[in-house]
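User: For my dataset I need records formatted as: sequence, then structure tokens, nothing else. Please produce one.
Assistant:
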Amino acid sequence: MIDFKKDWGKLLAFVILLAASIGLVVVQVLNSSNTTKLEVSLINALQYICSIGFTWLLSVVVFNNTYNDKQKKFAIGAFRRVKEIERNIKRTREYIDQSLKDGGDLKSCLSVAKFSLVNAQDTINSSISDWADIIEDELEISAQIERLGSSSINDIGYKTENRNVKKEIASLSKKLPPELRHNVSVEFDKRHQIKEAVVYLGKKIIDDEFIELRGFWEPRTGLMKDLAGVEVGSKVYIARGITETRTGAILMYNEAGESLAVVTNRCIGAPYDVFADAIDEVFGGTLRPKMFGGHPVQAEVIKIDDFNPKSERQYLRVKVFKGIDESVMYKYEELRLHNKSIQQTAKAASD
């Protein structure tokens, strides 16, 4: 539908050009008996120009409005999907808040949360499908890149295969718009960084038979219990958690499941999230608090500093003596080979 308020300028120009064309026809008819060939040619040229002008304006107005109507239809559909996700998240949050308040069965709470996430994912997939006839090529390329990234060899040792996959992904990414290209590049780089970080942390644990973690407690968040009862030799537990600035952070907990400190380690110059995902994978992906059915790893406090009033933080260090998960060793051949080499060296030294 044409929006007269928005397109009044184009419509006015269209009417003027149309009137000019009709006027030229009238002039030509009324003066057909005494016009020269030059005048006829000029009138015909003006008619032609006016015809092109009002035809072009009409096509632009109609096309823009048709396109906008179609885009509006898709936008309304996308907005409806977003509202569905929003309602789903709101219901889940309310259910979780109530379960935490009542102290009920947290496993059933997690089951409901998982079901809600599945529904949200279905809604997202449906929303993506709505745009298939407009950005079908981009969606297909993105899907190909996703398949390449997820099916790439997990072992960092296969450098040739990984290079080939990376080249193919880079080639496909060039076919995407810059906005999507950046997102794909960031996602692939993060997955690759996590794999490298897992190998790096795994080798350190194999070599040292422990991993040292650094962390801090600060009072201003109000989310963590103070370190009054913590001293060198105390046992703490390492698991995922939520802070004011991020979800999925690595935290230190006490026996009661109360958070004590935020772990601040990083590795290979990668972002903190890469370290958090990598350390979780190294220990089998079970670094969730006990209340949520996880299996935090035990650590021993080896150093604790005095509270620094200037930074409003109290730092501590802990050691985790747990070995890497067997599934991780099986998944990454480079870790298997490194572990075998260490065992052979130790055996040769003992002989």
